[in-house]
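Hi there,

I know you've been waiting on this one. I reran it after we fixed the sequence typo, so this is the corrected version. Both the input and the resulting structure follow.
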Amino acid sequence: MGVIKITQTFRSQVDASRMFKALILDSHNLGPKLMFASIKSIEFIEGEGDAGSIKQINFTEASPFKYVKHRINELDKEKLMCKYTLIEGDALMDKLEFITYEVKFEAYGYGGCIIKMTSEYKSKEGIEIKEEDIELGKDRAIGMYEVIEAYLMAHPQAYT
């Protein structure tokens, strides 16, 4: 079993607190509303969004995946950080045990932020994961952040 660790950094013109609230705290409401072509629904299977909660994302027929489940490991609303693990779903491609994400939002420039996301992909015994195997997930993360950023820029009073 191997682990591939990838760090991505995104710059946003929206402040860190608003991006954190929209992407982390309220993604279960905002995600299906803005990304209705790919996300059918997001619901909490256990808990209400704090550490230990399990959230299920159900995708539309247009998506290559049916669903995924995330467990929230850590949530720090003051430091604008969330760590969660993809524990179930076809996005694991029968090759991965799990994927752990840590997302941090930091102030940058005049009213913007930097979003740092570290992903750890843990493969199943005897399976070798190549970077091209995980490109789709990286592209989806970037796309989701861009959609949320555009929404927040168009709605400056949202999530203040």
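Quick highlight: The chain is about 25% helix and 40% strand.

Best,
R. S.
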